[in-house]
Amino acid sequence: MNGLTSTEVEQLRLRLAQEHAGLRQEVTAELERSEQGRYLELAGRVHDRGDESVADLLADLELAALDRHVHRVRLVEAALAAIERGRYGLCRACGVQIGSGRLHAEPAAERCLECQTTAEQGRHAPTL
pLDDT tens across 11-46, in order? Predict the structure, then answer.
C-alpha cells in the first residue's frame, strides 16, 4: 500500500484519531466562544473607528483560526477514510506512494513531496 507495515499504519491511525478528537474539541470551543458574543461585546464598547477596526480584526482572526481547524479536521478525516479503504499513503495528485518518512512526520499528508512542492510553488508563483 505505502511501504508501511500494518503496525505502522495502526500507529498512524491512532495518532490521526487522537488529533481528530482534539481538533473537534478545539472547533467546539471556538464556536462556543464566538457564540458568547465577543465581537458584539467589543463592538458595543467601541468609541471610534479605530476601536471598531480592532474589533473587526479580532473577529476576523477568530474566524481564520476556526477555518484552519476545520481545514485540518478535513485532512485528518480524509487520511482516516483512506486507511479504511486501504488507500492510505497514496498521493492524491499523482497516485504514487507518499513515503513512510513523510507519513510519520505528517500522518495526514495528502501529496507526495514532489506534488506538495509543486502545489506550494503554484500558490506562491508571481502573477504577471
Answer: 999 999 999 999 999 888 877 776 555 555 555 555
Residue 108 near residue 20 (C-beta atoms within 8 A): no
Residue 27, C-beta contacts closer than 8 angstroms, at least 6 positions apart: 66, 69, 70, 73
Which residues lie below 8 Å from residue 87, measured CB to CB, with a gap of 6+?
Answer: 1
Residues 50 and 34: beta-carbon distance below 8 Å: no
Prediction pTM value: 0.73
d(CA 91, CA 84): 16
CA 45, CA 94: separation in Å to the nearest integer? 53
